[in-house]
Amino acid sequence: RRPVKEADSQSLLQGLPKRQGLDVSSLNLSNHSLSQLPADVLLLQKLETLDLSSNSFTAIPVEVAQLANL
Fold this sequence. Notes:
Blueprint: H1 6-11, E1 26-28, E2 49-51
Parallel strand pairs: 1-2
């Protein structure tokens, strides 16, 4: 797999409506060669599980801590 650039990683979530507080409790972003977390993930305030395995992360943004249910 080719590494996913930031612009590409944002398109992974394009199908989601752009509003805060979406009722998404589980999100699987594994195996996408991501190096950055798509910013829209931080809008998913009801997120309880987030699978980021098998990606190219060097760090997870501290903002993830804002997802209180995670």
